[in-house]
Write a structure and sequence with these properties.
Layout lengths: L1 H31 L7 H6 L7 H30 L1
Helix pairs in contact: 1-3
């Protein structure tokens, strides 16, 4: 039972972290180029009322990928600083 809770908590944290990074980047990008902005919830959970498969699962997947890339960069930088 603990592993299901742990995996769910890890997914939730990674989804929010990646969604926050995407939201910050997207907000800056869309402000600079005068494009319509998306809400924070759309970056984290995808657009509401969409039947598209990517909209329901792809946003979470992108958030996970971004989280692992950012964490990899942070770990690499710290390992270079320490050594």
């Amino acid at each position: 039972m603990e592993e299901f809770f742990g995996i769910g908590l890890l997914w939730l944290l990674c989804n929010y972290f990646g969604g926050t990074i995407r939201w910050i980047y997207g907000s800056i990008w869309r402000t600079l180029f005068n494009k319509p902005k998306f809400t924070y919830n759309e970056y984290v959970f995808g657009p509401e009322k969409s039947k598209d498969h990517f909209d329901t699962h792809g946003h979470s997947f992108n958030n996970m990928i971004i989280t692992f890339v950012i964490l990899g960069i942070i770990i690499s930088v710290f390992s270079l600083i320490i050594n």
